[in-house]
Each structure stands twice: as structure tokens, then as C-alpha cells.
Amino acid sequence: MQGPGEAYSLFRTEDMHNYSVEFSPFRDGLLAIGASQYFGIVGNGRQYIVQKDPVSGRMQIVRFFETNDAIFDCTWNEMNENQLASACGDGSVKLWDLQTKDAFPIQSYHEHMQEVSSVDWNVVSKRSFLTASHDGTVKLWDPTSPRSLRTFQEHAQVHSFMHFANIFIQHSNIAILHNES
């Protein structure tokens, strides 16, 4: 057992820079790591799924998915332990399923006009997730729908947000509370 401040485990990504880490809400020691080449400025992205070995304590790659642009954030689907979403530098949002045989996303959304900097699943209702983009928008998604459910565009600059139940807070130079309904 680690004490406060001790490393959980070490995982090095070859030729990639890590942008986000999300612990699985379903499985102990399973993590999603969003990574990008060249600090996310140019190059490809990789969505890693890694598992901590209970005996050695080392992180081992379970699966990974490649993208043509950076991955800046990721989040686990709160209703399906095998799915996660990635926020990509080309303005897309990818929905992955760990049980597919191929390495393609099960859904690829292309509605943002610039980089998607943040993605967050609703941990209360579990049926939706939000994305924030450098295009100044926050979008509400249902993973079963082919397009976003709603677009919030109250700011010119949105960097990230916090998502609680049906309310979320946009982080920019001003915080605004929104109700999803």
C-alpha cells in the first residue's frame, strides 16, 4: 500500500506525451491514458488502456487506439465498463470499445471546429457526456445519438469544465453555470 505522496506506478509512453489519466470506475488498477506526439502541437495521438499488475505493481498495456491527431483528454463511459471517449486535436470526439476486434472507434463525432480540450462523463445520470473546445463551445452528447444533443456557446474561450448531475461549470475568464435540461 502506498503512503501519501508515493507513486502509484510508473508507465512510460514511447514518443508520446501524456495529457490525461482516468481511473476506471469499474475495475481496480485499470487506467485510460490520453497521449500525443510532440506535446500535442503536431503529430498523432494514442489512447492507452493500461492495467496495474497486482503482483509486480507494473503498468501493462491492455489495448491502445491510434488517432491522426493529438488526444488531450479522455473519460470512461459511466454505464459501460468497456467504453471510453477521447477529446482530439482535430476537433473530433472518439468513442472506443475495448471489446471490438479492430482498432477503430465505434463512433466518431465531428462537430467542433477546433481542438477538443476536455471531455467529461456525467457521473450521476450516466447517460451523457460533455466536450469543451477551443472553438468556444461546450457540447452535450448521448453515446447512442449520431450527433450532439445541445451546444452551449456563451463564451469565446472555453478551456475546461466540471460536470455534476445536470449542471456544469465552464472555466474560462468567467464561470457560468448551465442546466443541461
UniProtKB/TrEMBL annotation:
Gene Ontology CC annotations of this record: cytosol; peroxisomal matrix
Matching Pfam families: WD40
Any one GO molecular-function label of the UniProt entry: peroxisome matrix targeting signal-2 binding
Protein location: Cytoplasm, Cytosol; Peroxisome matrix
Keywords associated with the record: Cytoplasm, Peroxisome, Protein transport, Repeat, Transport, WD repeat
Stretches forming WD repeats: 80-106, 109-151
Keyword Nuclease (UniProt): no
One GO BP: protein import into peroxisome matrix
Keyword Transferase (UniProt): no
Gene3D superfamilies: YVTN repeat-like/Quinoprotein amine dehydrogenase
SMART domains linked: WD40
Superkingdom classification of source: Eukaryota
PANTHER family: PEROXISOMAL TARGETING SIGNAL 2 RECEPTOR
Entry's family note: Belongs to the WD repeat peroxin-7 family.
UniProt name for this protein: Peroxin-7
